[in-house]
Amino acid sequence: MLIDHDLIESDHAHVLHPLYHPSAHQAMKLWVRGQGAIVTDMHGQEFIDGLSGLWNVNVGHGREELARAAYEQMQQLAYYSSYVGSSNLPTIKLGEKLAELMYPSINTFFFTSGGAESTESSFKTARFYWKAVGKPDKVKFISRIKGYHGVTMAAMSATGLPAYWPMFEPRVPGFVHIDSPYPYRFVNPNPEVSDGIAAANLLEAALLREGPETVAGFIAEPIQGAGGVIVPQDDYFQRIREICDTYEVLLIADEVITGFGRTGRWFGLEDYGIEPDIIQFAKGITSGYVPLGGIGVNDTIRDVIETVPGEKRWMHAFTYSGHPTSCAVALANLDLIEREGLVARAAEVGAHMNNALNELGTLAGVGNVRGKGMMAAVELVADKATKAPFPPAENVGGRVQKEMTSRGLFTRVVGDTICIAPPLVTPVETIDRMVTIIGESITAVCQ
Questions:
Q1: In angstroms, rounded to a whole number, what is the distance separating the alpha carbons of residues 379 and 445?
Q2: In order of start, what are the domains of the chain with their CATH numbers?
Q3: Does Cell membrane show up as a keyword for this record (predicted)?
Q4: How do residues 207-257 score in pLDDT, each as one tens digit?
Q5: Which residues are CB-contacts of 394 (< 8 A; sequence separation ≥ 6)?
Q6: Comparing C-alpha atoms, which of 254, 250, 252 is closest to residue 268?
Q7: What whole-number distance in Å separates Cα of residue 386 and Cα of residue 401?
Q8: What does the angle CA 353 – CA 358 – CA 362 come to, to the nearest 5 degrees?
Q9: How far apart are CA 410 and CA 420, in angstroms?
């Protein structure tokens, strides 16, 4: 149809997309509708949403309750500044609700427009805290290879995916990376301890190299998402918490993907029995219906913010912090998650999904299947015995993605790793169809 061509040409002429290059945008999908776990393109073709939009549409598409919450709040007060001296009812109520749901030591929240702003807020808050308590040299941050924390300048500098760096160098100074725990590929340098302890001890080694008196915080996703859904060893985070306590380093949990039920818990670190000092969140707090993110700080940090002299105040701000409409939608979204038992459902249906995906491990080309709750990954390799990857020139991941799309599944492939994170409401039969499509697509490319 002529309209197709016109819209595509207009898109090319007027829109720069995330991670943009025209070579990757020739067969774009123009999405027009979503319902539950299904999205529909402009031709009326339906696809399973294998990544919940971008890890965020937890309650599924087309929820009238969230549209109604936005409409009703916009009628009453669409926006007003939440700068010091002002507030609004949805922001206050959302803070109260998060204090109920979060780790017990975290009861105070600052709201942003999304994940990267939340990362920046975490870094600035950590530096503020150490300056306020008389340790101004603690300014560095340690993060992990394959971690993703956003792509604003400081967030990009913490992100451990090198493809994001070259055309924006130099990065912000003061950021150091250690290896991911990545169970499938981690090489333990000390067989006297478990892989999880050895991976965590890389943080201690980095602290000693940098000087712990110079390090403000360590930032980590409970499960590394964009890096390939990397679930750490069970004993990893307990040791991380011990190291942070020993060397007076703030532990920043990046729960932008893992928060609000994705892992089968409200928050990802709950599985490991520890609490962070700062938590950052976004995505699932509104299921992507409107932009919202934020950070939560523990009571110790909150008390310092409350008691510094006025001239040393926490001078951090965004125009849309505490946006009334976004906070109203977040409250409605959290109500849906609770009322429909979606956290428990993510654990139950996620176990089914991961068990079904594990059966693909016998296929040629499948090196590793991993996941927790409603997030998983299938890593493709050229040689199962050696774990050798396919040569990049073969574009195996891209070819498998094309096969999946042709069969009605739209999801993301990172290198040769298929990432899966469907909405928490996805029916079991749709999960099974998704797994079948993945298997057929791998076989079509790797047989």
A1: 14
A2: 22-59+341-446 (3.90.1150.10), 65-339 (3.40.640.10)
A3: no
A4: 999 999 999 999 999 999 999 999 999 999 999 999 999 999 999 999 999
A5: none
A6: 254
A7: 24
A8: 145
A9: 10
